[in-house]
Amino acid sequence: MGNDKRRLIAGNWKMNGLLQDAIEFMDAFGGNPAPDHVEVGLMPPFTLLHSMSERLAKMGVTLGAQNVYNEDKGAFTGSICPMMLRDADCHYVILGHSERRSIIGESNAKIRSKMNATWLHGMEPILCIGETLEQREKGITNAVLAEQLAILKGAPKDKPLTVAYEPVWAIGTGVTASAQQVTETHAFVHEELTKLGHDCRVLYGGSVNPGNAAELMACPGVEGALVGGASLKAESFMEIVKATALVVS
To answer: In 3-state terms, what secondary structure has residue 50?
Structure first.
């Protein structure tokens, strides 16, 4: 699982959150309730990174960003470069999220170039992979995931990496993959990563909530969660962290 054996519970706020929301969240969350067993990460919008950075560090929460551009600086209006994220003390960068792939049209090649830029500036990519409902029904889930993981071919083996398996049909839908589906798919993802020479944590994402967190985190091969909607409220996010800690301890 790489250099950190703890599970990672990472909250992806997506395009949600104003400054007052962030303050209220940090007041309510208070701090990581299980630092020995669980690493907690938070990925708010770019506009909140600097204002949350110092306080999250004191709370024992790792800061991350939801995206990055692959150039260091220049005429790329509306883009954020890796050094800007480092300047805000980011450790993680989410890359290849299905919403970026489908809505923005990001290719595997673009995701790989962003990954290289993330590594170059000492941050850790959280590479998102996942299949659509149509792809799962056609029985080509593993082929789709293998193609998405193939961008790691030739990538340095000594750089930090986390992978997040997120079935697209379970993101924000309230539908969660069954424990059997999660276990089987995570086994395949770990297999592929081993072939590619990477030993890293694999998170599950897709409608993770306090009600299903314990079952999902108990699945073999699941080493944390990338949490969407349930990370917007401190109370539900903390419940997921606590459920994970109970599974691990």
So the answer is: helix
